[in-house]
Specification:
ten-stranded mixed β-sheet, alpha+beta, Transposase Inhibitor Protein From Tn5, Chain A, domain 1
Length: 390
């Protein structure tokens, strides 16, 4: 394994648009009067905390002091936990939010393979709640004795990249948040897939008027009637495929056009599902497959909650929490970018474990990908005498 002149963490940062990050810092004057711990230092330390799974400021400080020989390469001169706490509390989270979307533009230029037969862009829309202790996070009041905030996300199903992330307090409804999102920036003809929490006929019709399509699971209370005989059934599990309209006058006013109702039986869950869509060109089986792909966004939420630091926080202020969330999203994009560009065949979890083990070592990142979590410590030890002594 060849030795590198920079640490793995520095190689991760080289993927990021650091010039634009400096511009964001300048816009907010975040480094004004700062002599030692810059905003870029803060980003490096928080990436280190995300990659290594550190749960507290003290744990971060101790871990970096043990790796004091790497400070020069990271540009760090101070790792005091009070300094990091102050930076998280006072420096605007918008800097890291802007960095996320800047890095997202780079990721969107990648070309991803797809298992779908259609060319339309496909997006899953959903939200996930992160519970907080109300006594520690009073700004995140959700219920009488409970705190929470929500991650509202639009994720590209084909690339598995979150392209829109909106953070709100836990009281904001899913449909309320999505109505404030800008759908005009998505490619014309995009298909959006929702669960039943997003059924708002006026909102769905606005998507159609904007040139997009939708697939949503039908509510049991939706009153509809067929307009013509069921289409020819094609595909295993397809029970019916009908052109329908709403029976209630209020629903007709919100959505005046005809709709398609696909009824599908899933062997895996032993359940029957009903899907509403405005898309009449795709097969009924494709419509069912599109809704099934919505599970990708559920897996995304599950992954970041289990493997990134979005449930235990390094600060209690709203600004500190938002900074940590945006850095977690940045780290997720970096891992996704690396996995795609290097054609790494392992899972994203396996990649994150390899990065965690070698984060502050001077090894070429490409060399790491040929190793396994089991063989990695021995490989690093062979190139580092200090590890041999340990």
């Amino acid at each position: 394994m060849k030795k590198s002149t920079t640490t793995v963490l520095q190689q991760l940062k080289q993927i990021m648009p650091m010039h634009e990050f400096s511009s964001f810092v300048g816009q907010h004057k975040a480094d004004k009067y700062v002599k030692r711990f810059t905003t870029e230092n803060q980003l490096s330390v928080l990436l280190y905390a995300q990659a290594t799974g550190k749960d507290s400021l003290r744990e971060i400080e101790t871990g970096l002091r043990v790796q004091g020989h790497c400070w020069y390469h990271l540009g760090i001169t101070n790792v005091a936990r009070n300094t990091l706490a102050n930076a998280n509390a006072k420096r605007p989270y918008e800097i890291f939010e802007s960095m996320f979307y800047s890095l997202l533009e780079k990721c969107q230029k990648l070309t991803f393979g797809t298992a779908f037969s259609f060319r339309n862009d496909l997006y899953a829309v959903d939200a996930s709640t992160v519970n907080l202790c109300l006594n520690l996070f009073p700004w995140a009041k959700f219920r009488k004795q409970k705190g929470a905030f929500k991650l509202h996300t639009i994720s590209n199903v084909k690339s598995q990249i979150p392209e829109v992330v909106v953070l709100t307090d836990g009281k904001v409804g899913d449909i309320t948040a999505v109505k404030d999102m800008d759908f005009t920036k998505f490619p014309n003809g995009s298909i959006f897939v929702f669960d039943r929490a997003y059924i708002d006929y006026a909102f769905l019709y606005s998507l159609v008027k904007a040139g997009h399509h939708f697939v949503v699971r039908k509510k049991s209370t939706s009153n509809v009637f067929p307009l013509r005989q069921s289409r020819k059934l094609v595909g295993e599990g397809v029970i019916s495929d009908e052109k329908i309209a709403f029976a209630r006058e209020e629903a007709q006013e919100d959505y005046p056009d005809d709709l398609r109702l696909v009824t599908y039986y899933c062997k895996e869950t032993n359940k029957t599902y009903e899907f509403l869509t405005d898309e009449f060109r795709l097969s009924a089986l494709n419509i069912a497959t599109i809704y099934k792909s919505r599970w990708q966004i559920e897996l995304f939420f599950k992954w970041i909650k289990q493997h990134l630091k979005v449930k235990t926080f390094l600060g209690t202020s709203k600004n500190a929490v938002l900074i940590q969330i945006w850095v977690a999203m940045i780290y997720y994009l970096v891992l996704t970018f690396i996995k795609h560009q290097t054609k790494f065949k392992g899972s994203l979890l396996k990649l994150s474990r390899i990065v965690s083990e070698a984060l502050l070592f001077k090894v070429h990142f490409i060399d790491l990908l040929s190793l396994t979590p089991k063989s990695l410590p021995n490989a690093l030890a062979r190139g580092h005498p200090q590890l041999k002594l340990l």
